[in-house]
Structures are given as C-alpha cells and as structure tokens.
Amino acid sequence: MAAVDGGEVDHLAGERATAHFDVDAMKVAWAGSRHAVEVNDRMARLVASDPVFRKDTRTMLSRKELFKDTLKKAAHAWKRIVELRLTEEEANLLRLYVDQPGYVDLHWGMFVPAIKGQGTEEQQKKWVPMAYKFQIIGCYAQTELGHGSNVQGLETTATFDPNTDEFVVHSPTLTSSKWWPGGLGKASTHAVVYARLITQGKDYGIHGFIVQLRSLDDHSPLPGITLGDIGGKFGSGAYNSMDNGVLRFDHVRIPRDQMLMRLSQVTREGKYVHSDVPKQLLYGTMVYVRQTIVADASKALSRAVCIAVRYSAIRKQFGSQAGGPETQVLNYKTQQSRLFPLLASAYAYRFVGEWLKWLYTDVMQKLEAKDYSTLPEAHACTAGLKSVTTSATADAIEECRKLCGGHGYLNSSGLPELFAVYVPACTYEGDNVVLLLQVARFLMKTVSQLASGKQPVGTTAYMGNIQYLMQCKSAVNTAGDWLNPAAIKEVFEARALRMAVNCAQNISKAPSQEEGFSELSPDLLESAVAHVQLIIVTKFFEKLQQDIIGHGVKEQLQNLCNIYALFLLHKHLGDFLSTGCITPKQGALANEQLGRLYAQVRPNAVALVDAFDYTDHYLSSVLGRYDGDVYPALYAEAWKDPLNETVIPDGYQEHLRPLLKQQLKFSRL
Ligand SMILES: CCCCCCCCCC/C=C\CCCCCCCC(=O)SCCNC(=O)CCNC(=O)[C@H](O)C(C)(C)COP(=O)(O)OP(=O)(O)OC[C@H]1O[C@@H](n2cnc3c(N)ncnc32)[C@H](O)[C@@H]1OP(=O)(O)O
Ligand SMILES: Cc1cc2nc3c(=O)[nH]c(=O)nc-3n(C[C@H](O)[C@H](O)[C@H](O)COP(=O)(O)OP(=O)(O)OC[C@H]3O[C@@H](n4cnc5c(N)ncnc54)[C@H](O)[C@@H]3O)c2cc1C
Fold this sequence. Notes:
The chain is an alpha+beta fold and 669 residues long. It has helices spanning 13-17, 23-31, 34-48, 63-83, 88-98, 103-118, 121-132, 284-314, 333-368, 375-403, 415-422, 432-450, 466-469, 485-508, 513-519, 521-545, 553-571, 573-578, 584-601, 605-610, 616-619, 630-638, 652-660; strands spanning 138-141, 157-161, 166-170, 178-179, 190-199, 202-212, 225-229, 245-249, 252-255, 264-266, 272-274. The strands form 3 sheets. Strands 1, 2, 3, 5, 6 and 9 form a 6-stranded mixed β-sheet that branches. Strands 4-8-7 form a 3-stranded antiparallel β-sheet, with no helix packed on it.
C-alpha cells in the first residue's frame, strides 16, 4: 500500500483483491528497477508531506499569485535539494513531483543542455557551474513572433564587430521579437539566444549565443533589452505558472566568446570557421528535449488513466434489479473499450520512452567518437515518437475526463488542469505535424535508397524485407491467432512499408520531388504515424523478451501489449484493409480478441494503475484517490471554493437584489 496518503477505509480493497499479479513486482517493471521504485517513492513522499508544495487551491489563484507561488516552490525545492544533499537523480524527481511548470524546467531542461551540447569545454567550465549553483538562471530563446517551426527563418541578428571583438545582437523587426521562451518573461537572468550570425558581411545562418538579460544585482533588464511576459494562457492554473516571455534587443553588445563555439567559431579577425560536424547538431538540444517529452507522455497519460480507472471502479450507474447493487461503470464494455487501450498506451509509452533514452545515449556516445551515421535515425525517432505520443496523450486526457462523467469537468478531478498543462506538448518542441513531416522525409529517403540496394538499419530495418512485406497476406484464422507477436508484427510492418512505398510512388509521378511531397503531405503524415506505431509496438514486444520478474507480471504486460497493438489495428482498420495486409474477416477477429483481452484486464485494472505508484498529492484528484473515498472528498472540496467564502455572494446588493425586488420593471408589464 505504498501510495496511500491517508484514508482509513480502502473502498477499492475488493478491486485490489481480484488482481492476478504481484503489484510490487509490476511497480519495478514500470519504474525500470527496484532502485527507481524506491527513489521515486521517497521523493514523491518528501514533496507530499511538505506544506509548501500544496497545490489543492492552485486553480483558484490569480496569475500573479500563481507565479509568486511558483517562485516560492522553486526556491523551496532548491533549499531542500541543498539541505538534503540530493543527488541529481533525486533532485530531478523532486522537481517532477512538485508538479508546477516553472522557469526551473527550462533552466535545467534546455539552458544547461544547450551549453553542454553546443559550448566548447572552456565555455562549459565557465557557465555550467554558475548555472548549477543558481548564480544565474537561464532559458532557451529560439522562437520569435514571426517564426517558430521554421528555425532557418529566424530574424534576430548577431553581427560581429572586429573593432571591439563583440557581437551586436539586434531585433530588426517586430516579428523578430523572441516570443514564447519559458522563464524568459520574469525569472531568467541569461538566455541562450538563437540568432543569424553575420560576419565580414556574410550571413552564416542560425547560431546560439549566451546573452545576459537582467542585472545580477537588482534583476532589472540590461540596457538595450526589452523584456516581459506574453500573457495568460489556456486554462486556469495549469501552464500559467510559467512566465513565457517576449524579448527585444536594441544593438546589445556581447563578448565574442559568448557565441557557443563547439560546432563553429568566429576568429578574432572575424573569420567564420565551421568544424567538421553536421550542421544539424545545432538542433541537438531539441532532440534531447523531445526524448524527455516522450517519457513525460507516459507520466501524464498514466496519471489521467489512474484517475479514470479508480473512479470508474467506484462510480455506479443503472443495473440495479430488485434492490440489488448498481453496476460499477468500469463493468460497462463501452467504458472498458475506451479506457483499457489508454491504460495499455501508458505502459507502451513508458517502455518506448525507456528505449528512446537508450537510443539517445547510444547516439551521443557515437557522436563523441565522431560517428554521425545514426543522427538521422535519432532525429526521426525523437520527432516521430514525440509527435505520436503527445497527440495521443492529449486526446487521452480529454477522453479520461469524459470517462469520469460530470465530475471529470470539476477542477478537483485534476483532469482539466492536467489537460491544460499537457496540451501545448503537441506544439512546443516542434509542432506535431511539422515533426511528422520530418519523419516522412526520412522514410521517403529510406525507400528511395532501397532501389540502390542500400540495406536499411535501426527502426527501418524491416523495409529491407520489401519483397516479402509488399505481397504477404496475414495467416490469421482465428481470434486467438492475433495473440501471436509474429502475426501482429508482420501486419504492422507490411502496413507501414506499403503506405511509405505508395507515397514514394505517387511523389515520383509529380513534376518535382518537392511538389509531390507537398501534394502528398496528408498521406505522408499517415505513413509516418504507421511507422512510429510500428516502433512502439515492436519495443513493447522487445520489452516482453526481457527478464520480467514477479508473479503474473509478464502475463499482464502481454495482455496490455496485445491490447495496444490490436486497438491500433482496429482504429486504423482502413489502413490495414486498403493496403491489403488483412481481410475484413481478420479485422473482425482482431476486434473479437480485443474484447476477450478487455475481460482479462478488468479484474486487474485497479492494481495495474496502482503499479504507477502515484501519491494522492501527485495525482491531485478527488476522483483518483487511492482509498476510493470519492464522495466525501468531492463534497468537502466544493466548500473550498472562494465563492463559498460567504453565504450571500458579492454582487447580491448591486445585481441580484434589485432584480428580485423588481425595482427595474418592464414598462409593458
Ligand atoms: C497539473 C500539472 C500537470 C503536469 C503534467 C506534466 C506535463 C509536463 C509539463 C512539462 C512542463 C514543463 C516543460 C516545458 C517544456 C517546454 C519546452 C518547449 C521549448 C521549445 O519549444 S524550444 C523551441 C522548439 N522549436 C522547435 O522545435 C522548432 C521545430 N523546427 C525544427 O526543428 C526545424 O526547423 C525543422 C522543422 C526540423 C526544419 O529544419 P530545417 O529547415 O533546418 O531543416 P530541413 O527540413 O531542411 O532539414 C535539413 C536536414 O536536417 C535534418 N534535421 C532536421 N532537424 C534535425 C535534428 N534535430 N537533428 C538531426 N537532423 C535534423 C533533416 O532531417 C534534413 O536531413 P536531410 O537533408 O533530409 O538528410
Ligand atoms: C507552452 C509553450 C512553451 C514554449 N516554450 C518555448 C521555449 O521555451 N523556447 C522557445 O524558443 N520556444 C518555445 N515555444 C515555442 C514553440 O516551440 C513553437 O510554438 C513551436 O515550435 C511551433 O511553432 P509555431 O508557433 O511557429 O507554429 P507554426 O509553425 O506557425 O504552426 C501553425 C500551423 O502551421 C502548420 N505548419 C507549419 N509549418 C508547416 C509545414 N511546413 N507544413 C505543414 N504545416 C505546417 C502547423 O502544423 C500548425 O498547424 C513554446 C510554445 C508553447 C506553446
């Protein structure tokens, strides 16, 4: 019962008793190791037990109060990290469980990685220790009012002045104003600013520069710098804790050595020198963050699913016969068919996120050894998985709100705020459509290279099996045949390859490659999605090949893996049928099997969300409480609303009383 925060009666005890597996062992499978379970649990409890980290009234705060509360929590978190001498792993988890977006996310998540990835050793030695001690606060200032997706279109300039050995950073137009960077509006003292490098009269394109924005004495903007917050955002509470900012430069001078010079340099004389590395490494910070966003997707999704599953087990509607008990809504087949694929997706994203982290680390090691061959694969995987997992997670959180009926719409359910915080993940760090088009570009290149006999590797290795995959027919004969991983993998591979080849063939009929790509872009998106879904399914199967310990754990994960795959097959049936990978009969058999799998998950559902090991504090939901004591909590929560501070509302005297006393009369009556 590691996750209980309080509560004396366990209203979900009956549900927990029906589980067919060892929940503690599942916690290990979910977290990755016993150590990970222990440290997650310890950090989550540390946060939950500290009154400064309370968040139950967050959605009722004004923007200014919310921002100040975020500053307070960030400072307190840092104090605890220092006092308790937490490791980096512990500190990251503590911040995660504080669960309030703020400038620290960008400081640690983008500013520091940008300097580490793009700064020389000397620059790292100078800046990273200051950032680690919070002597400076940094953000990532790339996006402008006029351009976000099109990084090459950014307009801010950094012009080298050889007379003073400085760059002059300038915002030449309104649209060149930096716009959106988190932490920029009010908190950051420094930024990594992306600007067009101009030297000796030539524009060398986008490069990164470290620029001080605010005084370290009184926090006022430095001369020539205009700074502010860009205004309120979607939802109450939610992402409004973040000071997304606007920044303009009026010929601001910075020393030459504040250009991040790992990839290219400007000499004292103003000569531009590009190192022997791919230009795309400039985008390295984005690749790093996209990888972390995939891991975040499983966190946000599992959180929503945990709330919806627990509440669905408590909530009863209809079904009472002769005074018997009503039906738990979790027993309705429709509820299961909407909810269990989301539960399965949470596990699928967790494991693919784990794999992506491994891939990223592997690619980084290769880059250190000057092997750049896996960079395109890393870009395609991070872009594609970021896109598919965040889009599905945003949709799933909203579905979980609906699965909780009316109460899901209350802030106290935790779901509206979770949705509002989460949904920009579909846009930031690369708009999901723009990123899928990058995957499609990678796929088209891979298909075109097949003809020249180049053997694809990594996640596109399956394309090398083109002779077979273009003509194979699924051998599935019974619903049970769909439990065979090879049968599932074959149809997912065939679907992805056939969709990619169809696109490539249609593009080749266009007057030019570029026109064809543009014309076919809606189809290319679907092709990219099919490829990414194949990766997720494959990585789930690969996870099942690993040593998974604990009674019944592997069986549960097998069920979830099959649900994830067959749910996708059912959802995208049109793809599988139109590419001839399966017959309508086989599609129907997949659906039949899906129903059987849902029945197997049902007695395990509550235990499967318990395995996420979330505290009530982190879930922040009266519906998702561990003890299931939903109704008293809902009732009590309502009284905390500021509207209930007085019995007679403000405004009664001015606006309600005159109406009720009919002092304003219709002349005709
Ligand atoms: C209630 C509380 C609940 C809490 C819940 C928890 C939820 C989590 C909350 C989290 C809280 C806080 C976290 C906040 C995090 C927010 C961070 C957001 C930060 C940002 O958004 S920063 C800005 C990001 N911007 C972008 O991503 C821009 C997107 N655009 C691009 O990436 C590029 O411009 C492009 C689209 C890739 C196009 O670039 P370009 O025109 O240069 O390139 P081409 O298309 O011509 O391609 C050329 C060539 O380069 C290859 N390539 C492109 N990109 C890369 C890359 N990154 N790596 C390697 N290679 C790359 C491309 O494939 C081409 O190759 P080819 O020539 O075809 O071989
Ligand atoms: C909450 C939040 C936090 C952010 N934090 C930061 C930050 O810290 N630092 C930072 O630098 N930036 C930040 N950003 C900016 C973010 O990275 C950009 O908003 C994002 O990359 C999308 O770019 P855009 O706004 O230019 O969208 P646009 O590109 O203008 O998108 C508009 C529409 O056009 C479509 N579109 C664009 N190009 C194409 C194309 N080639 N083909 C087909 N369709 C296309 C898109 O799909 C979308 O539907 C943040 C944004 C948000 C919302």
